[in-house]
Amino acid sequence: MPTRSVVRTDVGKLKALRAAARLGADALDRGEFKEFKNAEDLQIYLNDVSEKVISATAQARGGLAK
Predict the structure, then answer these.
(1) How many structural domains is the chain composed of?
(2) Which of 5-35 are b and which e, b meaning 16 or more Cβ less than 10 Å from the residue's Cβ?
(3) Are residues 25 and 38 located together in one domain of the fold?
(4) In terms of domains, do 43 and 27 share one?
(5) What would the pLDDT profile of 17-62 be if each residue is shown by its tens digit?
(6) Structural domain that includes position 10
(7) How far apart, in whole angstroms, are the C-alpha atoms of residue 1 and residue 33?
(8) What one-character DSSP code corresponds to residue 31?
(9) Residues 28 and 11 in one domain
(10) 63: pLDDT strictly greater than 80
(11) Quick one: 15 and 40 in the same domain?
C-alpha cells in the first residue's frame, strides 16, 4: 500500500499532466502547431530550434554563441 506522501506526489503529477494535456489540446484547437512533410524536415526544424535556444542561453550567460 502506498504511503500518503507517494499518493500526494502521484496526485500532483496527475494534475500537472492533465494541465499540460489541456494546454496542448487548446493549442491544437487554435491551430498553433507545425506540420512536417517527413522526419528529415522535423529533424531540421528541431536542430534549428535547439541551436537558437543554446545560442540565447549562452548570450544570456555572457558566453560566446554561434
Answers:
(1) 2
(2) eeeeeeeeeeeeeeeeeeeeeeeeeeeeeee
(3) no
(4) no
(5) 999 999 999 999 999 999 999 999 999 999 999 999 999 999 898 8
(6) 1-33
(7) 42
(8) T
(9) yes
(10) no
(11) no
